[in-house]
Design brief:
The protein is built from six helices and nine strands; from the N terminus they run H-H-E-H-E-H-E-E-H-E-E-E-H-E-E. With 216 residues, it is α/β, with parallel strands linked by helices.
Length: 216
């Protein structure tokens, strides 16, 4: 596909998410804190006082968990609609930014950790290759990346079957990760500290979770 075609994909993908929020047809979790956040606290990787950015924060469900753990948090999403809901759901002193992953509006080493639950698996291969370096700049030495992405077991519906590890449908792009592929996704800029799985309880929505550390 041409470079123009790739740009068109991200335009239609943004429109897909905007429509999902406006029509209230949302297939991803809206409440509760992801296991990757809870695990990062439990294992001592995340501690009170850490500066954390969540990209793709949506309506703020993970921001609440991070704040309760004592972190200083910033939420970012490229769609304005969920940020309106987040302003109601999270404490008013949590900054919420409308921004784009491709042009991150933050200074280098502004954070101790970045959380991405649900963005990485919507990137095409060229952008996935650049992604580790984009986030590398944002975190301090020994900084963390908390990542949640579609597992190879993820299904959009009970009869969903695919022969490839990616699919483009309904105006957006999804890529899926088995355990080995996920473990290597951030190399060589990040090293994997922990990998787990999360099931949203519907028998369909399976996610790979990882805690990565920035390589000096």
């Amino acid at each position: 596909m041409s470079e123009t075609g790739e740009k068109d994909l991200y335009v239609t993908q943004k429109a897909f998410f905007l429509d999902a929020y406006r029509s209230n047809r949302i297939g991803w979790p809206r409440t509760g804190v992801s296991l990757v956040v809870r695990t990062a606290f439990r294992m001592g990787y995340l501690k009170a006082g850490a500066r954390v950015l969540e990209i793709g924060c949506g309506e703020g469900r993970n921001l609440l968990g991070l704040r309760l753990g004592g972190c200083s948090v910033v939420g970012m999403d490229y769609v304005e609609e969920p940020l309106r809901s987040a302003k109601i759901a999270v404490p008013e002193d949590i900054p919420l930014v409308q921004g784009d992953l491709f042009s991150l509006p933050f200074r280098e080493q502004s954070f101790d950790a970045v959380l991405d639950w649900g963005v990485f698996h919507h990137l095409k291969k060229p952008e996935r290759a650049r992604y580790p370096k984009w986030l590398y700049r944002l975190v301090a030495p020994d900084g963390l990346l908390l990542l949640g992405a579609f597992s190879e077991k993820f299904q959009h519906h009970p009869d969903d079957f695919r022969r490839r590890m990616f699919v483009r449908h309904r105006g957006h792009y999804d890529v899926f990760f088995d355990k080995e592929r996920f473990s290597r996704a951030m190399e060589p800029d990040w090293t994997l500290l922990w990998q787990g799985e999360e099931d949203q309880g519907d028998g369909l929505s399976h996610y790979r979770l990882g805690i990565f550390r920035r390589v000096p």
